[in-house]
Amino acid sequence: MKKSLLLAATAALVIGAGPALAKKQLVIVVKGLDNPFFESIHQGCEKWNSENKSSEYECFYTGPASTSDEAGEAQILQDILSKPDTAAVAISPSNAPLIAQTIRSANPTIPIMTVDADLAKEDAGLRKTYLGTDNYLMGKRIGDYIKQAIPKGGTICTIEGNAAADNILRRAQGMRDSLSGKEGLAELKGEGGWSEVSGCPVFTNDDGAKGVQAMSDILAANPNLTAFGIMGGWPLFGAPQPYRDLVKPLADKLAKNEFAIGAADTIGDEVAIAKEGLVTALVGQRPFEMGYKAPSVMLDLITGKIVSDPVFTGLDECTKDNADTCIQK
After folding, report:
1. 3-class secondary structure per residue, 67-93
2. Smallest Cα–Cα separation from 70: which of 33, 35, 50, 99?
3. How many CA atoms lie within 13 A of 113 on its CB side?
4. 90 strand-pairing partners
């Protein structure tokens, strides 16, 4: 009898000494690991982990090395969906139709949501909810600031990222609607006094250096250009010094509202650039909040709780005048 009790106790000790069971994964897949915006989402994910160490779930952050690798993001999503420890996925689609196709092919039984960028409206049924910025409103506010600076209108060039990124397309539409006073125009041709110059919009694949070069090229070809609408902050946070070098000669015009630059995001050097008077206004997102909230929303979806669709995370608006206080703490 004593021998059997000893063997049982020994077995219990051996089992207890083994490795801890792997946690179920609440996966956030972003467009690319090379973008500081997504690193803020990563930090939010890690904060959630630090506050939920005893949970059986873990926030796991991943994505392709480069934001321009649309196929890589789709492959990562496909791989993640095939893993048995994946409990839910929040994805920021770089190429919305491609990601929709990937989800449709995988036909997952776990909850899928989008974060930061959404699927196209016709594919929205493939995900449970969208968490992030109201991108149409963001673009509209960028347009409002440009129109406020130059109410009579002029010529404008839009700087965009990936041509199939739904969030960027919604921002551009919001800006056009604000400037034109109409809804749904694919291009500005004098409506509201605004026209888009030849060669625009420019798609830069979220590359800061390409964004600055595109702006330089457009200015050279259009010396009387009135404004830039930058739908992501890539030129400002991705190549801040080249951006400063390009825009400093326009600082006096910006101060006098003879030229306008409305740009998205408030990360990296962007707020400092606003304080220097080298952008008319920034309309920023809250990526840390997206990364911090996404695991909790995924858990709600797993447990069958009612989740709103969409879940918006708000905007921060920064100009030279309020640069010290514009970011939500």
Report:
1. CCCHHHHHHHHHHHHCCCCEEEEEECC
2. 99
3. 31
4. 28, 113
pLDDT per residue as tens digits for the range 166-193? 999 999 999 999 999 999 999 999 999 9
DSSP of 223-244, one letter per residue? TT--EEEESSSIIIIISHHHHH
**How far, in Å, CA of 80 to CA of 102, rounded?**
11
pTM: predicted TM-score of the whole model, two decimal places = 0.89
Q: Which of 269, 180, 186, 262 is nearest to 228 (CA)?
A: 262
* Residue 139 near residue 231, CB atoms below 8 Å: yes
Catalogue the E-assigned strands of 154-301: 154-160, 194-196, 202-203, 227-230, 260-264, 281-284
Angle at 190 between CA 187 and CA 193, to 5 degrees: 120
- φ/ψ of 18, rounded to 5, equals -75, 175
If one counts every other C-beta atom within 10 angstroms of the C-beta of residue 53, the result is 8
Please answer whether residues 86 and 80 qualify as being in contact, where contact means their C-beta atoms are separated by less than 8 angstroms: yes
Written as six digits, the tokens of 324 are 């010290």
Count other Cβ atoms within 10 Å, centred on residue 319. Answer: 15
